[in-house]
Amino acid sequence: MIIVTACSAACETCQLKISLWHNGVCRAEIENVVEAENLPENVNVAETENVTQNENVGVIEEPLQNEDLDQYLLHPRNTWPYDITITVHCKLKLIHDIKEVLGSCGELEEFKKSCFRHYLDLPHYMRGLFQAQYIHNLLLCQIRFPGANVGEMWFVIENTKVRLGKREFCLCTGLQFGVLPDIFLKDYVLVKDGFHMRYFAVDGYLLLDQLLNRFLRGEFDHKGDGLKMALVLIANNNLFTQDYLRQVTYWLMLLVEDIQAFNSFPL
């Protein structure tokens, strides 16, 4: 969900700065999402170096003559009508709360150095919820055609093929690609003197709602605790779009105890 959300937010403002990450290296700071493409593979580019771009960030292909793009749809058009409600859990209010709480405890500057820093630039008038229905409708337009890379997502929009690949993902989200560590395979064990042990009961479940309420109270015991809570909350709520009544993602609780590892994940 976050891919389209970040991209649409940037396209609406045309001035949202987003860091372009590729193979773990920050390539450029750009002012407009449609400026970046054709970055070289495995070549380091200094963060301050100007990068000349010739193509849009998203690869767009015009259909072949008389090509019927509907034949490639994963979901045929006759299946598109639905009478269900799309439930949305990721609320932009969390961004405002993070600014307020971390600003009051002196940890906002550290958040601005994190992998989620670009969320702070979302325009203030984008109140309420992310556009889950828009994303749902976009996914209905997903296509798969002969020769398409299995590592990319393609959509048909206004009779054109539009690609969402690794470059577009890294640009729109500021996140990275890499080999996943084995942290997912480990049983969750409380980190000694970690914020879970210090702020919450050491047994039983920890719900996102409990974590949010404690975060909103502020007044943290140790410097850095507010930042850790904010990172877990924004990952769970805005990236994973989880309901606050669900449990936290426990491997995130392990990962966030090492801020450097969290920001460079999954490398």
TrEMBL record:
Record-linked Pfam families: DUF1985
Organism: Dipteronia dyeriana
InterPro entries attached to this UniProt entry: DUF1985
Every DUF1985 domain range: 151-266
Protein name from the UniProt record: DUF1985 domain-containing protein
